[in-house]
Structures are given as structure tokens and as C-alpha cells.
Amino acid sequence: MYIYDQYDQRIVDERVSQFRQQTRRYLAGELNEAEFLPLRLQNGLYVQRLAPMLRIAVPYGLLNSRQLRKLAHITRHYDKGYAHVSTRQNIQLNWPQLEEVPDILAELASVQMHAIQTSGNCIRNTTTDQFAGVAADEREDPRPWCEIIRQWSTLHPEFAFLPRKFKIAVCASEQDRAAIHAHDIGLEILANDQGEHGFRVLAGGGLGRTPVIGSVVCEWLEKRHLLTYLEAILRVYNQHGRRDNKFKARIKILVKAMGIEQFRAAVEREWESLRDGPSTLTEQEIARAQSFFTAPDYAAVDGGASARELRTRCEAEPIFGNWVRRNTAAHRVPGYQAVTISLKATGFAPGDVTDTQLELLANLADQFSFGELRTTHQQNMVLADVRQTDLYALWQRLQAAGLATPNIGYLTDVICCPGGDYCSLANAKSIPVAEAIQARFEDLDYLYDLGPIELNISGCMNACGHHHIGHIGILGVDKKGAEFYQVSLGGSQSREAAIGKILGPSFSQQDMPEVIDKILGTYVDLRREEETFLQTYNRVGIDPFKERVYARTH
């Protein structure tokens, strides 16, 4: 992973010192609310319903065990003993005291972490595939490119005050595990006919009030031009994006207003003055970024023998075998697998992890995965480099800590924003809906029979829970002061990305488990052999689901 040099550390340390003084002046009444607002946002601090919320940056989701232990310490001493993994792969604290936030930032700086650009109208954390660097279907490791973008975009003066927040995702695998089509800019690393790698560039995607799937701006971009091309897109957006209405300020609105052809032409014109300029990436600079993501010291393993041993163990202990089948993924190195740790146990808020669990995960990362762990945009965690012969011992440790729920990719692996329990923007609570659905569908055999289903829940139109691209999406809405929930079907964050269609009138919170049950029952009745929920929906459309769900309630 990337290691700070002296300049990085000095910048982060100086930022902590600056914010300490700004906070002191605010608490002393020397700065008013409006004056303090941009200062706190530049340091990841929001005002929420019950307390401030601090969003901590986790570049492309990668953490080392030292950072995990520090996060455990911070949640224990400055918060209520747990942290929350966000859909931007960041970590959020829900209960810090404002006067202690400078101390938290100082603690973070001591392990090369910060909260810079986790809020505000700037380029946010660049995200990627949680299996980056180890995925069997990957063309190349996208993390060096995320790091190049991070270094370019952090505190970039030209892009510090964009019309709205700006999100970039990079993916280099056959499957899109970074939801690049739902980002302001999505980058896909592809190979051309000569086997050379370059970028397919999408722009204008995004969720929120007006959900849009991104459009292709450039089918093929040489790697050395990445930053100059990104700069051209950002400049067009910065110049022409609307600033008079925050709901129409995202780049997706600009692309839609201009049309993709005109937008592309504007970017190309802007690029003419940037192409081959100082921001063009040299081979040395690319190699420098790649040097931070070299392969760990993998053991030389007889992959065939290791796999046979694992199969034997799985057959001997079916519960373990079930976890291996659901929660581990293929690895490019023989004898290894990537492990997804579910933060979706029934009865717990999706994405929450306690201080003791964080410390356990740090120990497990040291013991089983070269001291590193990743967060996922689906609010889970990943140990990416686990030997197959260590999986059983790892599973036992995770099971004892309540972290071995074998539900990755199934209905109860819910993406869920903090909602009205914490967020001041939310119209409705999300977590109780997620917990009620998890409790209703706790039968794993039924979940496995249903097959892969993505259920995403947001408490408001900002769509932090990505409800638009869930196979089943739930959106909390406010109706004359009462909370209701709108359901959409058919969304997808895959390569065939799609925005879900609204089923019909909304439901009360108590109705939601029954509504989901009727949707699932319709799918089971209509599916053909081996057909997934999304395939059935795409074949039959929304009407059969609508008829079943509203047959008795309306």
C-alpha cells in the first residue's frame, strides 16, 4: 500500500493543527456557524441529528492492521465503540464530540490517515474493486491508478470548489465490482487488439434525485493521458456545471443538458490545451505508483493439492463448506483465496463494526493476510490473501466473533445508509427496515434457493444506500411528516447497469417485510430453471410483481 513520504505527513499534520485552531475559535465564538461550515466540511465533519459525524478517508478501501487498531482505539475512546463502513469505502463515526475531533484527526495522522476531502464539493475518495490486485478475472491492478488520481486530486486548487461533490471509480476486471456506471467518472481498464491496456472513460453517471447511468466519453485512452483527460472533463464541468441549484449541479445534469456528443466535443477541445502537457504521466511516475502495490511474499503452494485438501475439509464440515462457497472468491495465486467478512449479521446495522471486532480483524490480517484488509462499497470487509490451508482456522475465529454470516451476495447482504437514525438529511429510517427484512428472511436455505439478490436501502433521495441500482431498491420518503417506503425493481450495478423502476405507491415501515415476501414469492413462481431474480425480472417485467404486491393492500 502507499506509504506517506515526508511531504504527505507534513501536509496532514499541518491540517490537524489548522483545524485545531479553527475549532477552538468556533467554540470560543470567534467564528460563526457560516464561517465554520466550509472549514469543518473540508475535514470530513458533518452536523447530524444527534451528534457530529466524522467521515474518515480510506483510499480505495485499503487499510493496514496498525490503522485498524487505531480505528478501534478511536471508536472506543472518542465514540460509542463502533464504526460504520460507507458505500464510498470510507469509515464513519456517528458520535464524536466536536471539541475532540482535532484529537481524533491527530490520532489518525499518526497512522497516515485523515478526513480531507471526504465531504464538500470536491473530488471524493476514488473507489475500486475490493479484490483489486488478487482477482482471477482482473486485467491489471487498478489500485496504482487510484493512487495516481488520489495524489492528483487531493487539495487540487482548481477543483476544490466544484459545483457539487465528484466521485470517480476504477475497475479492471471482467465483472464490474466498482459500480463504475453509477459514478461521475467511471474508468474501465481494457486491452486493445495489441494487448495494450488503456482506459474506457464514462462520465455523467450518478444516483441521487436524478439517477443516470454514465455515458462513454472516450472508448480508448492511453494510460499516459489519464490525468490530462480527467482534468479536461473536470474543467468542462467546473466551467459549465450549474451552481444556482444544488439539485441540478451534478455532472450528470450537465451531460444530459449538453448531450453526450456536445459534451465529448467540449472535453476534446479542452483536452487540446492539456494533452502532452506537464500532467502527462511518464513511465517512471506510473512505475513509482505501481511500486507501492507489489505482490506480498506468497508461499509456493501446490494449488491442486491445496484445493483438494480444502474440498475434503468442506465435505467433512458442511457449515464451513457453506461459508467457503458463499464468502470466499477465487485468487490469481494458486493456493490462496480472498475472504469477504460479512458485516450483515441479523440484528446489527449493516456496515457497523465494533472496536473489539476491529482489533480482531487487525490480528487476523496480521496472521492470515499480510497485515492488510479492505473495505467494500457493499459495506463489508475483505481479507484478500488467505491461504486455503488457513481458511478453516480463520473461519473459526470469525464465527466466534459473529463475523462469519455466509450471506455474501444474497438478500440479507443489504446495502443500507445510516438513514433517519443519524442523518439530518434523511426523510426516513433505513436501519430498522434492513433489520426487519434480515430477521424475516433469516433462513439461509431459502436465501440460497432465491439465489443472488441485491437489496439496497436509502433513507432519502441522496441515495447513499444506492437504492436505484439494487435488484430491489427501497427509498424512504416523507409524506406529511410520516415515513413511507417506495420500492423499485430491476436496478443493477453490473456491466449491464440499470436504474430500477418504481413499483407503485409506497408502503409503511411495518409493511416492508411482507412486501419483500410477495416480491420474492412472485419471482419463485415465475422463474425458470437456473434463472436469477434479475433475469426473471428482465424477462417478465414489473407488472406481475405489481399485481401480486398490490393485490390486497390497494
From TrEMBL:
Domain of life, source organism: Bacteria
UniProt GO molecular function: 4 iron, 4 sulfur cluster binding; heme binding; metal ion binding; oxidoreductase activity
Cross-referenced InterPro entries: NIR_SIR_4Fe-4S, NiRdtase/SiRdtase_haem-b_fer, Nit/Sulf_reduc_fer-like_dom_sf, NO2/SO3_Rdtase_4Fe4S_dom, NO2/SO3_Rdtase_4Fe4S_sf
Gene3D superfamilies assigned: 3.90.480.20, Sulfite Reductase Hemoprotein, domain 1
Domain named Nitrite/sulphite reductase 4Fe-4S: residues: 119-272, 413-550
A Pfam short name: NIR_SIR_ferr
Residue ranges constituting the Nitrite/Sulfite reductase ferredoxin-like domain according to the UniProt record: 53-110, 340-401
Keyword set, alphabetical order: 4Fe-4S, Heme, Iron, Iron-sulfur, Metal-binding, Oxidoreductase
Protein name as catalogued: Nitrite/sulfite reductase
